[in-house]
């Protein structure tokens, strides 16, 4: 399939999961794609599917992020869309999660996302156009037991994205966050987890961890359909700021909005009383 006026897309974390499905769909749709992963042997086959530039990228390495962007600009002449997909998971109650694993989550999920944003922004600013798409999670809008630090990294990316959107909108650059629920990818089966557990959290974080393991291969979300939805949203005349993906994500996002509004309204008088009295 060919598309008129193809865009240049830079996608991170393409070896498995969403990243691979997104890259495959874009190439099959006739788009130009910079396909990246830490190990290129896992993505080299995508070169046969269309106009692909295969590059190694570990997003926690800011210098390498810059080299990838420079190579993409030299090869295709521009980057129209950055899709920040690279990320890792971790199972464990907050108290069970050690500092090393917590920092690793932030290094990859948050700072890795920030690194690629810093690399593409000068070029997008110069052209006064571009789209930055950050894959977070419904766990970036709602906290879930057993994945507290993972959710924290995704909440952080949501906050970064909300601010970035306001800063770059006057420059012709759009920012979108995508919040998937459970999809049939390798994420649940490949995530690390706390080596030592605490009995008191067995009915919360422990139960959640067991449910994640049991869900592998049975998740409701279809990553191929998600890839198509992402491209459609990016190419829309007015792209959304947020795109929950999957029924569970939509239901959870709507409930979070309703619960937040109800909480604020219930305590509105006390909240407003904290300001100096009007004179």
Report on the architecture of this protein:
Belongs to the short-chain dehydrogenases/reductases (SDR) family. This protein is 48% helix and 15% strand. With 279 residues, it is an alpha/beta fold. The chain has a single domain, classed as Rossmann fold (3-Layer(aba) Sandwich). The strands form two sheets. A seven-stranded parallel beta sheet has the order 3-2-1-4-6-7-9, sandwiched between helices. Strands 5-8 form a two-stranded parallel sheet. α1 crosses α7, α2 runs parallel beside α3 and α3 packs parallel to α4.
Shape, principal axes of CA atoms:
globular
- The neighbouring-strand order within the major sheet is 3-2-1-4-6-7-9
Number of helices: 9
Give the radius of gyration: 20 Å
Q: Could you give a short account of the major beta sheet?
A: 7 strands, parallel
| Number of self-contained structural domains | 1
What percentage of residues falls in helices of 4 or more residues?
A: 40-55%
Number of strands: 9
Assigned CATH architecture = 3-Layer(aba) Sandwich
Beta-strand percentage range: 5-15%
Quaternary state of this entry equals single chain
Spans where pLDDT lies below 50 across 5 or more residues: none
Output the CATH class name: Alpha Beta
SSE topology string:
EHEEHEEHEHEHEHHEHH
CATH homologous superfamily annotation: NAD(P)-binding Rossmann-like Domain
Q: What is the overall pLDDT average?
A: 96
End-to-end separation: 67 Å
The fold-level CATH name is: Rossmann fold
Content-based structural category: alpha/beta
Keywords: Oxidoreductase
Protein name: NAD(P)-dependent dehydrogenase (Short-subunit alcohol dehydrogenase family)
Family: Belongs to the short-chain dehydrogenases/reductases (SDR) family.
GO molecular function: oxidoreductase activity
């Amino acid at each position: 399939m060919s598309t008129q006026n193809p865009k240049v897309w830079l996608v991170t974390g393409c070896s498995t999961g969403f990243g691979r499905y997104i890259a495959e769909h874009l190439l099959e749709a006739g788009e130009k794609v910079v396909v990246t992963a830490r190990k290129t042997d896992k993505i080299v086959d995508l070169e046969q599917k269309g106009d692909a530039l295969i590059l190694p990228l570990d997003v926690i390495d800011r210098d390498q992020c810059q080299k990838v962007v420079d190579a993409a600009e030299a090869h295709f002449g521009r980057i129209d869309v950055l899709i920040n997909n690279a990320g890792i998971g971790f199972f464990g109650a907050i108290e069970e999660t050690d500092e090393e694993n917590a920092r690793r989550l932030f290094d990859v999920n948050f700072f890795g996302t920030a690194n690629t944003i810093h690399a593409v922004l000068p070029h997008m600013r110069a052209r006064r156009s571009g789209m930055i798409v950050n894959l977070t999670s419904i766990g970036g809008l709602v906290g879930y037991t057993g994945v507290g630090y993972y959710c924290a990294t995704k909440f952080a990316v949501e906050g970064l994205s909300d601010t970035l959107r306001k800063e770059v909108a006057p420059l012709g650059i759009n920012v979108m966050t995508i919040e998937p629920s459970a999809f049939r990818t390798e994420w649940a089966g490949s995530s690390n987890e706390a080596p030592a557990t605490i009995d008191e959290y067995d009915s919360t974080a422990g139960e959640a961890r067991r449910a994640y393991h049991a869900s592998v291969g049975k998740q409701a979300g279809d990553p191929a359909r998600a890839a198509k939805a992402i491209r459609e949203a990016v190419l829309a005349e007015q792209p959304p700021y947020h795109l929950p993906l999957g029924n569970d994500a939509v239901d959870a996002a709507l409930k979070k909005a309703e619960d937040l509004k109800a909480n604020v309204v219930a305590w509105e008088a006390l909240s407003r009383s904290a300001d100096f009295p009007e004179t």
